[in-house]
Amino acid sequence: MIGTSLKRSAEAFAELQDEETLLRSPTTLWKTALGRLFRRKTGIVGMILVGFMLFLAIAAPLIAPHDPLNVLIGKEDGVRKRSAPCIHMFGCDTAKPQHILGVDGNVRDLLSRIIYGARVSLSIGFTTVAFAVTFGVILGAIAGYWGGWIDNIIMRVMDVILGFPSLLLAIAIVAVLGPGIRNALLAIAIVTLPAYARVMRASVLTIKELDYIAASKVVGSSKLRILLLRVLPNALTPIVVLSTLGIAGAILDAAGLSFLGLGAQPPTPEWGSMLGSERNQVFSAPHLVFFPGFAIMITVLGFNLLGDGMRDALDPRLND
Amino acid sequence: MLGYISRRLLMSIPVLIGILLVTFVLARLIPGDPCKAMLGEKASPAVCERFKRIHGLDQPIYVQFVVYAGQIVQGDFGKSIRFSRPVSKILIERLPLTIELALGGLIVALIVGVGLGVISAMRHNTGVDVITMIAANIGISMPVFWLGLMLAYAFALLLKGTPFWLPPSGRLTAGLVSTPFFEVWGWIAAKDSAREAFYNFIANHFIFNALITGDWKIFNDAIRHMILPVITLSTIPMAIIARMTRSSLLEVMGRDYVRTARAKGAGEPRVMTRHALRNALLPVVTIVGLQMGGLLGGAVLTETVFGLAGVGRMLFEAITARDYPIIQAFTVVIAVFYMLINLVVDLSYGYLDPRIRIE
Question: In whole angstroms, how far apart are CA B137 and each of A229, B55, B83, B196, B249?
């Protein structure tokens, strides 16, 4: 092991000697990280899965064979409630209408609903995390930078939030606010916020002792300027990784809330609620449970892999 | 060590007060008038006035909180609106199921998770490692309720008629009744006494009760009913534990003391268990504590899928029915349960790693 690392240092040194390398414009952390991300299998698979879901979400009206809210009864011959997938190419009777993933309990095309569901789930994931990150980062930065009683109050509140199992607290919050996609989103953001606050506080605590912060103070920068321009940008790396993984968690939790009937309300094509409303039909129409859940899994898996890949890429210690 | 324990206990008091405060506030914020919820929409203002006076709802909010906190500390959770029975009795009926489920899930997750993590780390970068980690990644990405429904479909429908058939819902097969140990042994407790409550609480752990009374028929049946829910609940923590064990073990295996152990001729199993695993499990212990939160949350979904009347399912039903006393009591109990687990985890961490105690 030592042998290889010695060899690697020697190579790096040789590269430094190379004049061209010296003249090359410096690359930023993010550029290097992106390069590394592309070299990792987990990162690539994650990007493909997330990219695929993004494509479905954006192109939904173009690729979905039906309107997700369109009840097909009376509009299509031979269409039956909860009928199993029928693909003409694979030998399904051509007299029957083609529904690649079958038809749901309200006689709507399941494939179209799942494609449109990507829009709902991805926007839930992104908004929730954006909200949680924004407030978590602000609170964590304030707690870490100012310290003292502000720190104590903020972090004790975070401790209390973390004192509850997150899904249960989210359920309780939705109970207060009333069921609905927006409230579910808010509830999940509140219960996931402490994670970002803690990570941010920890990074700020380390960074604020570093020399360049002292230098900035000496120059006479204001506290706010130091915090915004010197501390924050340098503390963001772990937040970026955490928020990618956070999107996965948010999608999963939102699906759970919707499954219980507390999140997205019918007829919104949300995967969790699609699955929840047909869960008693699992023995007679398993496709109505299988496909929405599979879509959730693929999306969550994508973000998890992407997050893992980013962690590896952004952590120089793991660089190999 | 004693100093560390007492310090850690003191630290949990503000969090406990916070938990009480949050549940109190949340229950007060739930829309709807408790008087109308209890006595019906047509309750007259005079009746409501009296109702509020009797239940102390006319007092200032901080007085209400102090009274509430005092009652909770004494174990008095009030009466359920929906069932008009003491909440503590309902808890005694429902909590054991969730404890069995969560404990089962934790044990399976730990044994299988650590096992897979060790195998993966030992066969680093081989096919076994790759397959295990792909499985673990899929495991953490699965919605609990989906996995549960798919398992129910596979084991209760597809495998019907084979010895692998497993029941998709309930705790016991209809018709079977678990006889409480105190009846079997003739132990008598006064009605409504604390001892009776305690006996009932223990006896409602069907698997444990059947085990100590030697009722193998019930034991078998209860276990069979638990298999699918436990697998469902344990999958996510299992995957997380497997990943954590693997990465932690890989890091530790590069350390000097592991090399030293190998150099002095210790066999690979000994190096693994004595030197590497012991150190590698420290972060895993922390993760286990954190996972308990997920496990308790997952219990709501698992209990819903498998039609089990546990704490999680009860809490969810209480929320939809606006049964405030149950909501408050169950949330507090779950949060305290979670806090205690994390306390134990922290204490064991201090025990495993002496450096933490000193700080």
Answer: 37, 51, 43, 46, 18
> Which of A115, A112, A99, A5 is closest to A55 using CA atoms?
A115
CA angle A240, A245, A248 (to 5 degrees): 135
CA angle B42, B46, B52 (to 5 degrees): 95
Q: How many Å apart are CA B198 and CA B187, to the nearest integer?
A: 12
3-state secondary structure at position B215: coil
Interface contact flag, B319 A283, Cβ < 8 Å: no
In this complex, is the C-beta atom of A157 within 8 Å of any C-beta atom belonging to chain B?
Answer: yes
CB atoms within 10 A of CB A149: 8
**Which among A164, A244, A301 is the top mutation candidate for probing chain B, defined by the most B β-carbons within 10 Å of its own β-carbon?**
A164
Q: What is the CA radius of gyration of chain A?
A: 25
What six digits make up the tokens of A176? 């207060």
Does B335 contact A282 at a Cβ distance shorter than 8 Å?
no
DSSP for B150-201 reads HHHIIIIIITTTSTT---SS-SS-TT--PPPHHHHTT----TT-HHHHHHHH
CA dist A14 and A131 (Å) reads 46
- Chain A, 100 to 129: residues with Cβ < 8 Å from chain B are none
Residues of chain A in contact with residue B137, where contact means CB-CB under 8 angstroms, are 42, 301, 304-305, 308
How far apart CA A47 and CA A43 sit, in angstroms, is: 6
Q: Are A103 and A110 in contact (CB under 8 A)?
A: yes
pTM here?
0.85
Cα dihedral sign, B333-B336-B341-B342: positive
CB contact under 8 A, A163 and B138: no
Q: Which among B18, B19, B157 has the least Cβ separation from residue A283?
A: B157
- The residue behind tokens 């009746």 is B47
DSSP state, residue A165 = -
Nearest CB partner across the interface for A260, out of B15, B157, B316: B316
Task: Determine, for residues B146 and A276 on separate chains, whether the beta-carbon distance falls below 8 Å.
Answer: no
Residue A2 to residues A178, A312, B345: CA-CA distances in angstroms?
A: 60, 21, 36
* pLDDT tens sequence for chain A (320 residues): 445 555 555 565 555 555 555 555 666 777 777 777 777 788 899 999 999 999 999 998 998 888 888 887 777 777 777 878 888 877 787 777 778 888 888 888 889 999 999 999 999 999 999 999 999 999 999 998 888 899 988 988 888 888 788 888 888 888 888 888 999 999 999 999 999 999 899 888 888 888 888 888 888 888 888 888 888 888 888 888 889 989 999 999 999 999 988 888 888 899 999 998 888 888 888 999 999 999 999 999 999 999 888 888 876 554 43
DSSP characters over B303-316: HHHTT--SHHHHHH
Domains along chain B with CATH numbers: 2-73 (no CATH), 88-177+215-352 (1.10.3720.10), 179-210 (no CATH)
Which of B141, B150, B293 is closest, CB to CB, to A290?
B150
- For residue A163, give the nearest of A123, A121, A202, A194 by alpha carbon: A194
For residue A305, give the chain B residue with the closest CA.
B137
The single residue listed with the structure tokens 């507090």 is B332
- Show the tokens assigned to B149: 């429904």
Q: Which residues of A touch B297 (CB under 8 A)?
A: 165-168, 256
* Peptide linkage before B60 cis (omega within 30 of 0): no
Nearest CA in chain A to B305: A279
